Each structure stands twice: as structure tokens, then as C-alpha cells.
Amino acid sequence: MNLHGKLADRLARGRPVRVALIGAGKFGSMFLAQVPTIPGLEVAAIADLDPDRARAACRAVGWTDDLVAATAFTDDGAAAAADPRVELVIEATGAPEAGIRHARAAIAAGRHVVMVNVEADVLAGPVLAAEARAAGVVYSMAYGDQPALVAEMVDWARAAGFTVAAAGKGTKFLPAYHAVTPDDVWAHYGLTADEARAAGMNPQMFNSFLDGTKSAIEMAAIANACGLDVPEAGLSFPPCGVDDLAHVLRPRSVGGQLEREGMVEVVSSLERDGRPVFRDLRWGVYVVLKAETDYAAACFRQYGLPVDATGRYAAMYKPFHLIGMELSISVLSAALRGEPTGQAREWRGDAVAVAKRDLAEGEMLDGEGGHTVWGRAMPAAASKAAQALPIGLAHRAPLRRAIPAGTVLTLADVRLDETAEGVRARRAMLAG
């Protein structure tokens, strides 16, 4: 609360919050759509591999010609981060290597960073957050995306004195989706390839939402920000509607499906036979609370929270997220309060590459949402012990040996560029 008032005070003093946006895709465009209706927030620079596309995106979301003309456009993210007018950088490229590079450029320039790029955050978030703290700037998750929304709910629950039994999000998922590739993804969205192409939809990106990879990345990010644990066997995606969250997402010892309390998990909007779940949470986020006293448990029921049979576990949920349209909350929290809306605090969760099919020696991996691997959530300790290959390093990486389908790849299975930012950051995490 009070961000709007604080921003009005800044504007009255002639000091608007000025930011640079790197990556003018869907998330960035949704943010840009809101900027003209937030007095005191300005986008000084936009970096994109195609600046003309970025200008077109601004016009498409309603920017006036004058507003476009007042903004600097470039294809150089580091240059945008170093713009002297800018106090905060939004990294929204979705490319892990670029995200790490841009974040470090922003930190070196004394800029706060809002990391929309969850792929980069899971690959190197704890390292980047530590570098930002040492430099006296804020490194933050992006509000509007599920990880920051979940982090907010977890913080609220703990600050109110509740134990967090589980936290996560909903999605559409069936186990067979792990094998889906960009070639057959559109049938699962009820689209033809021509319809998707006409809408400008990227098949590999949308496949990462479907095959479980994006869920693994986001749950690892939540684990790292909230001190929660990733299931030992990976996410199980139990079918579950909002009325059953407290029943399903409690420990097995009391009849639920979790290994223990304090876990991340994703619930599916589909039953295993493909039927829709009643009152699903496909677009939303949740937290399951545990009451530590009989009195608190009684209050859960008295005030209408959905509870399990014991009355001790209750669920709170938000049925939607507005991604980039809510991003200004992170921007203003960092710029006006010096606070992140969620931040990687430790390395507790990872998203690692698993072979979608039998892979041949010399074959080139094509990364998140591609034809070769999907991303599985794994406890960081297990990933470190196995020297597992993070999904963020599984793009354009040639295989040193043949890999059977279903195998978790290791760093030794691929040829990596040891000079790359992502590789160096991961090596630092492994050495820590």
C-alpha cells in the first residue's frame, strides 16, 4: 500500500521514476500499456533486438506518437541500462544468458533490477541478488508473474503467524505433456498452426508452458525466494480445484499428497483422464496455511476459509494474474521503498533438463519448450550432488554422448562455453 501516494510525491517534486525496459515482448508490452495511466512513471529507454518492432509494440498498446518520440530505442540492453536518466532496469527478454548479462550491467551502473526473466533468476538468482545487495541496489522478482505473487502470499501468511504448508500455482497439465514438442503443441491449445502464426505466438515458448518446464522454473524460483522445498521426485501436478487445496496440499501423514510441510507444488486444471477439474485454479496462485492452535483453526471455519477435514489446514488463493499489467508494483516498490517483491535468498530449488526422447551423441539441445528436453523441478542439493544440467544451459549445447529418454542430463553430458555468463554464474553457485 501507499505506492501511488509515494509516486505522486515524487512527481510533485519533479522526480518521476524513470526506467529502462529490455525486451518488448508480451510481458513488456503489457507493462507498456499501463505506463501512460501511471503519472510519475516513465520509460526512458527500450532495448529490443528489433527496435522497430518495439516501437510498433508501443503504438499497438496505445502510446501516442509524442510518447514514442520521447523514448530512446536501441538494440543494446547494456546501453539502455547505462542511460543516465534511468534508475531501474526491467529485464524481460526471457533468455537466461542475456538476462544475467543485462542484470550485471544494470547493477554495475547502480540501477535497481526487476527480473521478469525467471529463467535467468533460477539459473543465477542467488548470485545476482548477492551482487545487487553488495552494490546497494534492489534485485527483485516481477510482480504480476506467479512467483512474486506467491512470494507475497507466503510473506503475508508468515507475518500473520501461520505456518506455510504449501504454495504454488495452477496450470493445465497431463503427464503426457512432458513429451510434447513445438510441432504438435497447438492442438493442445485448440489452435491450428496457421492461427497461432497469425497471432504471433511462438510455439516453443507456448510449449514450455505446456510441457511442465515453465512450472518447474517458477516453482524453483519460489523455493529460492521463500525458503520452501521442491518435491524429491519433482512436481506431481495433482488435479485439484480451489475447494480442495487444503485437503490435497497437506502432508501425506495427515492424508494429503505432500512429502511434508513447506513444499512448492503445481495443481492441474485437468483430471488425469482429461476431464476439467471443478473450480480449477489454472490462472491463479495459492498458499495453504496451517493453524498452530485450536483457536486459530476455529477462526478459519468461522471466517469462511476452505479447510481440510482436520480444520487445521486452510487455503488462500488468487484466481488470476495479470503479468505485465501488474509489473509497476515491483518497479515502484524497488524505486520508492528500496524493497523487492520477492528475491532469491538461497539456492533451494533448481530446474534441470530431462531428455524428451532418446538423444544421440553430437545432437544439439534446443532448450526450454523445445524438441529435445523438458525442465523438471529438483531440490538444489540433489541437483548439486548430481551436477545436473540446468534447463537454462540446455540451449544450443551439443551432447558429448547418447542420452536415453527420461534421463536427467548432467553438466558433463554437454559441451559448454565456460566463458558464458550463465555457465560462470552456475559454477559459482556449485562452488558456494
Overview features:
single chain, 432 residues, alpha/beta, Rossmann fold, Type Iii Antifreeze Protein Isoform Hplc 12, six-stranded parallel sheet, four-stranded mixed sheet, 16 helices, 14 strands, 35% helix, globular
Kindly summarize this structure in a few lines.
By secondary structure, this protein is α/β, with parallel strands linked by helices. The chain has 16 helices and 14 strands.
Would you identify the CATH H-level superfamily of the largest domain? NAD(P)-binding Rossmann-like Domain
Kindly report the CATH topology of the largest domain.
Rossmann fold
Number of domains: 3
The structural class is alpha/beta
The sequence of SSEs as H and E is HEHEHHEHEHEHEHEHHHHEEHEHEEEHEH
Sheet with the most strands, sense and barrel status:
6 strands, parallel
Number of strands: 14
| Integer average pLDDT | 97
CATH architecture of the largest domain: 3-Layer(aba) Sandwich
CATH class membership of the largest domain: Alpha Beta
**What would the principal axes of the Cα set say about the shape?**
globular
Unreliable spans: none
What is the count of helical runs? 16
Please give the alpha-carbon distance between the first and last residues: 37 Å
Query: What radius of gyration results from the CA coordinates?
Result: 21 Å
